[in-house]
Amino acid sequence: MRDAMSELGGNPDKINPMVPADLVIDHSVTANVVRSQNAIQANMELEFERNKERFAFLKWGSSAFHNMLIIPPGSGIVHQVNLEYLARVVFNRDGLLYPDSVLGTDSHTTMINGLGVVGWGVGGIDAEAAMLGQPMSMVLPGVVGFKLHGTLRDGVTATDLVLTVTQMLRKHGVVGKFVEFYGRGMEELALADRATIANMAPEYGATVGFFPVDHITLEYLKMTGREDETVSTIEAYLRANKMFVDYNEPKIEPTYSSYIELDLGDVEPCISGPKRPHDRVTLKDMKADWHACLENKIGFKGYGIPKDLQNRVVKFDFHGQTAELKHGTVVIAAITSCTNTSNPTVMIASGLVAKKAYELGLEVKPWIKTSLAPGSGVVTKYLLRSGLLKYLSDLGFNLVGYGCTTCIGNSGDLDQIVADAITENDIIAAAVLSGNRNFEGRIHPLTQANYLASPPLVVVYALAGTVDINFEEEPIGTGKGNRPIFLRDIWPSSKKVSEIVHSNVLVDMFKSTYEAITKGNPMWNQLVVPTADVYSWDPNSTYIREPPFFKGMSMDPPGPHSIKDAYCLLCFGDCVTTDHISPAGSIHKDSPAAKYLVDHSVKPGDFNSYGSRRGNYEVMMRGTFGNIRIVNKLLDGEPGPKTIHVPTREKLYVYDAAMRYKNDGQDTIVLAGSEYGTGSSRDWDAKRTMLLGVKAVIAKSSERIHRSNLVGMGVIPLCFKSGEDMDSIGLTGQEQYTIHLPSSVHEMQPGQDIVVTTSTRKSFTCTLRFDTEVNGTFTYYSFRFPESCNIRHRYDL
């Protein structure tokens, strides 16, 4: 944008954030080295070696832009750092107090709702606009009241609770709504438990999962090192403005748009999977559910494995040791993600499980890739103080880094022997992780079954080595003296966990951790970067390339134009996620992106991930729709990142087909079913789509953030009318499509009817979806203040 400003004759230094912007570098660390006591150092060195160009670019930005704080790599995960350090709850600007709020370029920004801060994830495009002073427009949301009462049973974890809440709210239907938790059950939830529930708001579909500030919030602020005076000011301000919940005061039942209720005592131990976060399975039902998944036809809960192949065992040699795989064998077990590693209760519980298992003689098979990647250095401190880190390491859960790792797809390669055994025998291998997302192809290309679980259950499944187990009836393994060890033998009581948390999680740990973070780390501090206002692009870089989005800008941008005789680039069913559209994980060796990198002298071992290459649009556009599990109806259901070039009937990589259409001057569109674009709030999902030449997406329904991103990149988001879809209209994706748009942008309105006609003489009407529709009416509130305004001025809104 600064380059474009210069080209237009303006002052590039005017491009600066107008609100405080905190950037935490957390998506770059990969769990490459795991079975080593020095894994964290090895991974950090590899991270800096691979990402040196990216880190130098970001460090340049930290000095070139005003109002920006950058937290260096290796510090933690953005949402956990926000929870423990960055969030203010109440801002104090020179004596003027006002509530904290936040927009984040990651959908799990909602984690901060657990601290009583209103905030949610937006696409990078929306966030950049907000930083530059543009208003944030939204539909006035419905607010769902979620009443909690009772107490969790002994041994039930916060993860069990959040997976239960996720399933309930998905069923209730909260897309585009705010959820507010209330009731006497709130007193039983620690702040970290609330943050775990708030974190997964994207998985249950809500914009916000809000917990009001109460005495538990204040206690957490003090525990994490916020000054007593600051906490007192927060309490006084919120009480004065009737925004503080005091359970000792009489309560009036709040009025909400709709209601849902949960007795915490009804929550059971559970996991979710194998392909979606809201597909919860209780532990007691897991074995039966797994066999049903093998039997069911291919879908969210099915793999279509013939009966005679379901119990096949494949034996192989693993570095001199006899090993075996079968459907459901665990090959990745990762304690990862801010969702759970921010919660001392489940982290201490995982350490206690590891300690008991080690003492009883249980071991994790060496071909299972195990890792521990907390979202904050505080976790390491309290695991060390409690003496539990040793036992996690003894079982192979070595500290590999502070970042998202496996949860975002940075799980690293499996041992080649294991990888070959999986691919050569078509094994449905499993990953178990303490993350928040398990969409197909996200965690690892070779794990088709991916389950979300609490950190202690991750340890348990690693010990068992399979998801095909009923823990109530079958032993986890055989311990010392050939004794069968069951789950009940190693699972800690809630009282035991609580005692260790209270004696080992200390305020000084938070203070010392974040004091160290503000000083950076040696590798970051040694980066030498230029100080110019405008970045000097390196034409030979394969990490950072000047993007084309602002090239050739004029002061008079063109208006909308109709889309004529467009071909369908891709035709999808339901639930195509941003992991399908814009994968962030590994770059497949045969992909167009890999070919580009090889052509630019990058060795396969240095491909890194799409997430790490996001500064190079050439790589990113070649990886669009590059998920190996994506199912395109034009290929008759065959999974993979290819499509049919309709005019020639050739089967091509999506990128190659798109470029052929662009070179021939032909527009393209994407057809989809319901819930298109669910998942992470990646702006690249829209940037990549636009770069491929796609002009419109027509879906049965689409997710708010993705829809906003598409609009930001000039791709038209349309939805079929209620009760209609591709099948009811009779569309095959083989037709050409003409979309009749108004001639002026001022004539385009949210909810407007747009007529689409096809080359087969069909005509249907779609809805223009700029935002979520509520009962056919739209209510927008956009507040924009003049640049000269003093924040003390009063504005009557």
Blueprint (SSEs and pairs):
Elements (H helix, E strand, L loop, with lengths): L1 H6 L13 E4 L14 H26 L3 E4 L6 H9 L3 E4 L2 E4 L1 E4 L13 E4 L2 H8 L11 E7 L8 H15 L5 E5 L8 H9 L1 H4 L3 E3 L4 H9 L4 H13 L17 E6 L6 E3 L7 E3 L3 H10 L18 E5 L2 E5 L4 E6 L2 H4 L2 H17 L8 E4 L4 H9 L3 H6 L21 H10 L4 E4 L15 E4 L2 H10 L12 E2 L5 E2 L1 H4 L3 H11 L2 H12 L3 H4 L37 E9 L6 H4 L10 H8 L17 H6 L19 E4 L4 E4 H10 L4 E4 L12 H8 L2 E6 L4 H9 L3 E5 L5 H4 L6 E5 L12 E6 L4 E6 L29
Parallel strand pairs: 1-2, 5-6, 7-8, 7-10, 8-9, 15-16, 15-17, 17-18, 21-24, 24-25, 25-26
Antiparallel strand pairs: 3-4, 11-12, 13-14, 19-20, 21-27, 22-23, 26-29, 27-28, 28-29
What top-tier CATH class of the largest domain fits best?
Alpha Beta
Which residues sit in consecutive blocks of at least 5 with pLDDT less than 50?
772-797
CATH topology of the largest domain: Aconitase, domain 3
Number of domains: 4
The CATH architecture of the largest domain: 2-Layer Sandwich
**Based on CA inertia axes, which overall geometry fits?**
globular
Helix count from the secondary structure assignment: 27
The termini sit apart by: 32 Å
Q: What percentage of amino acids are in beta strands?
A: 15-25%
Provide mean pLDDT, rounded: 91
Gyration radius, in Å: 26 Å
Strand order of the largest sheet: 21-24-25-26-29-28-27
Structural class: alpha/beta
Give the proportion of residues in helices: 25-40%
* CATH homologous superfamily heading of the largest domain: Aconitase, domain 3
Short synopsis of the structure:
By secondary structure, the protein is an alpha/beta fold.
